[in-house]
Amino acid sequence: MCSLILCQKRNLITMCCKMFHRNLLIIALLLLSMLIVGCSTLEKVVYRPDMNQGNYLSHHDVEKIEKGMTQQQVAYILGTPMLRDPFGSRTWFYVFRQQTGHEKITQRTLTLLFDADGALINIEK
User: Fold this and answer.
1) CATH code of the domain covering residue 72
2) Residue 4 backbone phi and psi in degrees, to 5
3) pTM of the prediction?
4) Could you tell me which of 109, 107, 77, 108 has the C-alpha nearest to residue 91?
5) How many structural domains compose the chain?
6) 104 Ramachandran zone, left/alpha/beta (phi>0; psi -120 to 50)
């Protein structure tokens, strides 16, 4: 009788150890899979929307700008500049940044310089 109880205890302990090791293995595999997914190098699998920031200027609108135009005329055609010269309003910056999906960021800058009277004197594309 005593040996039967002892055998049952051994079987129970062995079964508990097997269950513990199996559960530990499952937990370890789950943690490992989470780490692998978190550190994925498959960047292009994840959807990334197109990002446009700043002043979008069409080529047609930029071609309308001519030297001698006033600040009001330029603002009417192109809109408000992204940046103005902090020490006055003689230099205007129109900045447009675009990132399409997983491609590199492209940036275009249009710099306009006005004289003291507010007339456009220089255009840098």
Assistant:
1) 3.30.1450
2) -65, -45
3) 0.60
4) 109
5) 2
6) beta
Q: Give the residue, 45 or 111, on which the prediction is more confident.
A: 111
Report the DSSP beta bridge partners of residue 54.
96
**pLDDT tens digits, residue range 55-111?**
888 889 999 999 999 999 999 999 999 888 888 779 999 999 988 887 888 899 999
Which domain does 80 fall in, by range?
Answer: 48-124
Tell whether 24 and 56 lie within a shared domain.
no
Q: Which residues contact 51 (CB under 8 A, 6 or more apart)?
A: 97, 98, 99
Residue type at 110 in one-letter notation: L
In terms of domains, do 108 and 57 share one? yes
Q: Rounded CA gap, 72 and 79, in Å?
A: 9
